Amino acid sequence: MNTLSRIIDAAKSDVRSIVLPEGNDPRIIEAGASIANDGIANVVLIGNLKIIKGLAKDLSINLAKVTLVEADDEAPRMKYSEALYMARKNKGVTKEQAEQLLSDPLLLGACMVRSGDADGMVAGATHATADVVRSALQVIGMKAESKIVSSFFIMQHDLPHQAIQGTAIYADCGMVIDPNAEQLASIAMDSADSAINLTGIDPRIALLSFSTAGSAEHANVDKVRQAGKFIESQRPELALMTEVQFDAAIIPAILESKAPDIQVTAPANIFVFPDLQSGNIGYKIAQRIGGVQAIGPVLQGLNQPINDLSRGCSVEDIINLVAVTARQAQTS
Fold first, then answer.
1. Could you give the CA distance from residue 294 to residue 296 in angstroms, rounded to a whole number?
2. Strand partners, 169
3. How far apart are CA 44 and CA 314, in angstroms?
């Protein structure tokens, strides 16, 4: 059984409520019904009920197990205005303004999570990542121990030709464009915790670079080395390869040859890329050429789980990310 199957089984064992604030999208409707009918999560759809019910009828989708919330109703805006006010009053938002702002379904969904009426939210099928993350930060906020909200992919290596086997985490491939050393360290530490909570793997972190153990000198390499020092000082219990090339991180003989002083055994299972450009390119090469199953991006560093879909997402993508979000809610 691979990691995704285990996550889905875990979600079913302790069912959580996930709000999908883009209920007018047919993919969301189909996925929401499937999730609810399969017992992966209790689903709340926010949208125009006339549109939702019309699409469901056209697509022969049964929404009997799905909770529907009319986005234009005054009642939910009034109910959750206090939650938004409490989250934003330090920014000058009044109670009246909070009620008006809740016409935004992303804010409404996030307030449902903050209020405890949902355990997590998944959005992004029709909204930009920046909008999803903004609503999360404004309402849910960031964990005190995290320096930044970042993302990771769960990468499942199951094909015989793949140099590593099983589950790995690739971070950050979807959020932080150019993290500084402290932020890079935070991404690595948050990814280790996410790996433990979601997948159960024993984390072995590789801070990736074009240099291994001092083989090159450059400001970009210095950043990776400094990130390693942050991790060693804050989380000395974590198994860490500081400043390694990808081949050294996955092949024991190469690691021994290039960096005999590194005590962690290859292969690593958490690969932390030095910037978004390399991370995004790296995971897509693994996925599209290497045949690695990619699940995500999954957000980390927030007080409660809110995750972002690609606007090109499939129904299967939505189901998988809801299952991951439900699992995050179980372990947060």
1. 6
2. 154, 270
3. 19
Q: Hunting for tokens 């979000």 — which residue is that? A: 325
222's tokens: 């210095």
Cβ atoms of 135 and 31 within 8 Å: the answer is no
Cα separation values, 331 from 9, 184, 301, 303, 305, Å: 14, 23, 13, 12, 10
The stretches in the chain having pLDDT less than 50 are none
Nearest to 184 by CA among 223, 217, 145: 223
pLDDT at 1: 65
Q: Which residues of 113-129 are buried (b: 16+ CB within 10 A; e: fewer)?
A: bbeebbbbbbbbbebeb
* Every domain of the chain and the residues it spans: 3-141+305-331, 150-294
**pLDDT digit string, tens, across residues 314-332:** 999 999 999 999 999 998 7
Q: Name the pairing type of β-strands 166-171 and 150-157.
A: antiparallel
Nearest to 179 by CA among 144, 211, 150: 150
Q: What is the pTM of this model?
A: 0.89
Q: CATH number for the 150-294 domain, one of 3.40.50.720, 1.20.1250.20, 3.40.50.10750, 1.10.760.10?
A: 3.40.50.10750
pLDDT given for residue 92 in this prediction:
84
Contact criterion met (CB below 8 Å) for 240 and 231: yes
